[in-house]
Amino acid sequence: MMRRLPHKTKQFFFVLIKLSIVMAAFYFIYDKLTNNGALKFSDFWNYILKNGVFSTKTIILLTFLSGFNWFFEILKWKVLGSSVEKITLKQAAEQTLGSLTASLFTPNRIGEYGAKALYFPFGKRKQVMIANLTGNVLQMMATTVFGVIGLYFFINSYQLKMFFLKPEGYPFFGFLVIVLLGFLFFFRKKLTLKKFKISKKQLGFCALLSVIRYFIFSFQFFVLLQLFGVNLNYFEAMTIILSMYLLASVIPSIFVFDVLIKGSVAVFLFLLAGVNEVIVLSVVTIMWVFNFMLPSLLGCYFVLTFQPKRNTVSA
């Protein structure tokens, strides 16, 4: 039989794994900023300096919006996570930001499921994954519902002729809505898996938080467009922004390259409205920096200080 590893050896490997995750996160962030094929970092930096985007007031506003964006995500996870095992807002913040860092370089943020599960006892980890899935489905619901509405007005405004953006292609998006509504119906009563339960009231509250988050980062995108001098009113800009998030969300991606996908979709959509490509890519990059890069760097601290739960299940 194989001998069990000494406790100190286990601790060493555990620390090594945490350091590897943090180093990988730093590398992917650095690589994204310096080796962006769509927009060179030097060009991006010179462009925002030229346009005076990063004034003190702007930085405060963007930080404020990003902070609220993640506060509502943390609050949502507190409700969902507490359905498995009672957690505080501080613990929810640690788990949310730590798992963000750990999932930064995994396809479609799949690593988030395993990372959050590690914060709970072994016997409850399946329930944690269901709770996390519930939160992601609710967020996707907001993206799909409002995205379809935005896409409808966008199509009518620009009279696009591609099949999936014509009336003949509406069933495709209708199918997405039906599937997501099916998930919502499944969770609506009381989703029960062993000791995991979520009530209608909790589910409705989490859905509301998802909608609030959605409009916070959509509004943040609009604010950046205005700072770059884009001549689009709120309604015109939002129809494109909502369409962009919908189309980008259905394309599988490695999370760190999510900005490239959103950038490509955004460039295509905004070019139809006559918006300069460099402006669009700069806005997408700034959104990524404030909403993902900075929270991921904060999450590095929680990864390094993480201590796994013992493999026990509380009564």
UniProtKB/TrEMBL annotation:
Transmembrane segments: 12-30, 52-72, 133-155, 170-187, 207-228, 240-261, 268-290
Record's keyword terms, sorted: Membrane, Transmembrane, Transmembrane helix
KW Transmembrane (keyword) present: yes
Protein known as: Lysylphosphatidylglycerol synthetase
Organism: Tamlana crocina
